[in-house]
Amino acid sequence: MVTMPRPAALCAPPPAEPLAPGTQVVLDAEAVWLDATHLAGGTPFRILGLSEAGASLVRSWVTPTSLDDTPGHAGLARRLVDAGLAHPTFPSGASIDEVTVVVPVRDRAEELDALLGSLGGLAVVVVDDGSEDPTSIARIADAHGARLIRRETVGGPGAARNDGLCAVGTELVCFIDSDCRPPEGFVADLLPALADPRVALVAPRIRGGASSSLLGRFERACSPLDVGARPALVRPGGTTTFVPSACMLVRRSVGSPLFDEDLSGGEDVDLVWRLAEAGWSVRLDPTVVVQHPARPSLASWLSQRAFYGSTAAALADRHGDAIAPVGGSAYTVGAWVTTLLGWPVAGGVILAGGAAVLSRRLDGVVTQPAAAAARLMVRSSLVAGPTLARQIVRSYGPALLLLSLVSRRTRRATIVAGLLGALGRWWSSDSDLDPVRFTAISVADDAAYGVGLWRGVLRRGRAGALRPRLFLMRRSGGDGATGAEQP
Q: pTM for this structure?
């Protein structure tokens, strides 16, 4: 595989220090106790062995708990936070005077006016990325007291953000798109996450705005920019792999340029993964919700989804299989694929085989390895099923369509997988749409993404973005991992 050039590496974070007393910590909702002292979960998945006293303390973190100054507690909290097994809330953060807001814009004068009107009290830099009507942009920026930078040629949002970054004197920068609608005080609400000196970037949850249209109602529940409702440590290979650049708060000192200007899309994914490579933490704070409206027409909405799909090929050139459309345990994927193809007994055998292998690997690690392995394997497979079905259909849809013309089994499996993925998405969302209309829009969403994905792959002439990332058993990584393996 050919690796495309990337910007210079970002600087390294400071050494890990124990969390300060007064910091609240809460155990990740997906963490699972395998026995009295072994905790499984995190980003990426690991099995963490604890002392009896440590396990007792961590069990009390089911609800948010403030750290005291007991020796060892803050260090244990740091260990779990850096593993994605717990999430911190700091009592306070920097002042908003230490933040400059950078708004890239191109010919969205009305949206810009509305956004700037909601940013009172914040220093703002507007970067006009080659607007056809620069006078309107200049007038609105001046009316709101924002500094204006004018780019004569269109460079894209990444280039515009980089130019804005160069004009900023504060340590913290909030990038926000001109069509976003943030709540009052959103910057102040995001700031505490950066009280952790190892966190380079924090992002809010992005949701679709209120709308009465079908597309708007779907987007409200399933925006492609909405990466989850639970706090998360964001990194490749985790449950939350990126946060969108529609709104993010970043340390300027991590390096420059932040965004890869050679990418026409996906520059936010690239930034998050480069930060992870450098050792920084990136956090999602879903308690802060920023609205981002759906595209106004079906054609523009489908075009947006296809564009998102087309960005995967360039990301594969830079980051390899981190962008894999299907990833995870070969046992889980194999069990679901064989079941969808109409061989459920074979699927059960594959799953049982995976549990047996995992049990042997857990022998000597946990007290009841067979029970723990079965629990992990079944749990991960059930959770992964609808998402995996959707990933397969939206990533390999064109190939499945061709195979369906000659194979009734493939045709049936594709239909079942499409319905399973869409209905699973409907069930896990809070959409007010009925399952029939939701499924129809979801299938169109995935089909458009798949068209863009294959178009990007064919255009670049490399299939890295279509290559799955599967493993039989993978060593748990990270400090303090027991050496057990991931299902």
A: 0.91
